[in-house]
Known about the structure:
Layout: H1 10-33, H2 40-67, H3 71-92, H4 95-103, H5 111-127, H6 133-159, E1 163-166, H7 177-181, E2 191-194, H8 197-206, H9 210-221, H10 228-245, H11 251-256, H12 264-296, H13 315-325, H14 329-333, H15 338-353, E3 355-360, E4 371-377, E5 380-388, E6 400-405, E7 415-419, H16 436-455, H17 475-484, H18 487-493, H19 505-514, H20 519-537, H21 546-557, H22 574-577, H23 584-595, H24 597-602, H25 608-619, H26 627-635, H27 642-649
Parallel strand pairs: 5-7
Antiparallel strand pairs: 1-2, 3-4, 4-5, 6-7
Helix pairs in contact: 1-2, 1-3, 2-3, 3-6, 6-10, 8-13, 12-13, 12-20, 15-18, 16-17, 17-23, 18-19, 20-21, 23-27, 25-26
Amino acid sequence: xxxxxxxxxAAGLKRRADEIVGTAQRALAELRNSRALPTEASLLAPLDxxxxxxxxxxxxxxxxxxxxxxxxxRTAGRxxxxxxxxxxxxxxxxxxxxxxxxxxxxxxxxxxxRFAVSKLxxxxxxxxxxxxxxxxxxxxxxxxxxxxxxxQYNENIATLERGIDxxxxxxxxxxxxDYVATHPRGxxxxxxxxxxxxxxxxxxxxxxxxxxxxxxxxEYMNRAYPENAPILAELLRLRFELATLLGYPEFAAxxxxxxxxxxxxxxxxxxxxxxxxxxxxxxxxxDRLLARKRRDxxxxxxxxxxxxxxxxxxxxxxxxRVEEFGVDSKALRAYLPYGRVRDGLFGLCEELFxxxxxxxxxxxxxxxxxxxxxVAHGDxxxxxxxxxxxxxxxxxxxxACFGVREGIGGVQLPQAALVCNFLDPTLxxxxxxxxxxxxxxxFHEFGHLLHALFAGHGRWLYTTPSYIEWDFVEAPxxxxxxxxxxxxxxxRFARNPDSGEVIPTALLDxxxxxxxxxxxxxxxxxxxxxAVSLRLYDRPxxxxxxxxxxxxxxxxxxxxxxxxxxxxxxxxxxxTGYSACYxxxxxxxxxxxxxxxxFRKAGNLTDxxxxxxxxxxxxxxxxxxxxxxxxxxYLGREFDFGAFERWVQEDRPPTASGxxxxxxx
Length: 665
C-alpha cells in the first residue's frame, strides 16, 4: 500500500497542494471544453478521478491540521485543506460542467451510478450552479469564507487549553491512585489539572471536592472563550447569507434538506417526541442523584452540572453505581489497560466480520505514539487505519474518526484514523488504564472506522460513506458501542495486568445492571444540545447571543441549569461540521437500537450470520442507495421507534444489594 507523505515539511506540503490543485484545475478545464459527447466513460469517470485526487488532499490537509505536532505543518495542513475546499467550491458552481452532467444518458447505467450522479447534481444545484453569474460569484466568496472561519474556530479549540491549579494534594481526594501519581506538584508547588480529556474526565467522575469539579468544569465550558465568540457570530452570519441567497428562509432549512429528516419542522417534532419520552425517567434518575447529594450536603437545593448525569460519567452517577449496583468505575479501570482493550476489540472484529489485523511498523508517521494497521477481510485487503490516542499540545481535543484517503474499487484502498485523547502521556500506552466510558467511546469511533473500511470499494466518490445522509452516519458507530457494554465481550479482554485477574463475572453482571442509570438524562441532554444547534441556525443571526441561546434552549429541555458564566458555544466543534444537524446523534440512536434487534432476538451479539448480513447490507454499500433502503434491506422492514422506546423503559435487574426500581415506576 502506498504510504502517505507524513514526512513532508510545511513547504513540501504547500508544494504538493499547489501541484494537486493545479493539475485538477487543468484536467477539469479540458473536460469542460471537450467536444466529446458526455457519457459515463468520457465525462463521469475522469471527473470522478479528478475530484478524488482533490478530496484526498482535503482529507490529508485537514487531518494534519488536527494532529501534527509542529505548528508550521498544522498551518500548512489547514492551508492545503482550504485550497482543496476552494477548488470544490468553485467546481460546484461550474455551470458548464453542471449542464454536461445533466445531459448524460444514464438509462443503461447501474443503480449506484445513477444515484451518484443524482447526488452530485443536487450538490451543485445547492451550491448555486443554476444561479446567475453575479450570485455565483458571491456564493463562491461566502463558501470560501465559511471554510476559513470554521477552520479558525476549530484551531482555537485545539490550541486554547485551560485548566486549574491545586495547591494541596488533598484536593485530589477520591481520584484513582494512578491519576494522583501522574499529577505531582509542579515547579511552582501547584498541581496543574488541564481541560484535556485524560485530566478532565476522571476529576468529574471521582473528585470528592465539589469545588474542584466546579472549577474545572467552568474552565472546560469556557476553553475557547472569548476568542471564538466573534468567530462563531461571523460563521452564523455567513451561513445565513449563503442560505438566503440560494432561496432558503434560513441556514437550518438548507442544512437539513439533503438529510433523512429533510425539514427543520420534522426535526423539531422529532426532538419534542423524544424529549417527552425521556423526561419522566430522566427526572426520576436526577431526583435519585439529588437525594444522594443531600446525604453529603443536607442543604443542597439542586443538582449541579458538576454533580452528575451531564456527561454520563458524573460524580454522583458513580456513587450510585457503587452503592446500589456494586460497580466502582475506579476499580474497573484496573481491568482496562489500553493494550488489552485494543487487542480484545481486534479479536471481536476477527470473529464477527472475518477481519485480519497486521501492524505496520516500517513507516514514518506523524508522531511516535501513533499505531498503523493493515486490515484484510478474509483474504482480500480492506484498507489501513491509524490509532492516535494520546493527547498533546495542538492536537484535536475530542474523539473522532478522520478520513485519511477515500477508497475506490480498483483505484485505491481506504485509509482512516481514530483521533482520541484516552491515554495518559506520562504512562506506557500498553498498560495505561482507560476509563470505562472511554472504552465505550473507543468502540463507538471504531464503528465509524469499520464503516469507512468496508464501504471504500465502490466505483464512485459519491457512493462512499462520506456522501451518505449525514443524520444516518452515527448509527453504525452507536450500534458498535453495544459490544463494549456486553459482559461476554468485556470478559474477553478485561484483565488486570498487575495481578493477572480476569474481571469478575459478578462485576460484569452488575455493570450491565447499572447501565440504565442516568441513561435517559444523558440522552435528554443530547436532545437539548440538538435543539440548541437547530435554534442557532433557524433564524437570522442579527442580535443573537449564542451563549444566551444555549442557556435558554438547554434549560428548557434539561432540568439542571446551565451556569450564566459558561460559554460552551465557543468550544463546540459540531457547530461547524454538523451545524444545525446535531440531532443526528439522537436520530441515529433510534436507528441503531433497531439495527441491534436481530442480534438481541438471537440472544447473541456475536452471531456471525447476522454480523455478515449487517456488514453486507449496511456497511459495504456505503452510500450507493438511500439510507432508508439500506436499513430496510437489513431489517426486512422500515425502521421504527419500538426498540428505542423499549430500551428507555427497560427494567433494571436486581443487584446483590437488593432490587432496583424500574425507571418507569
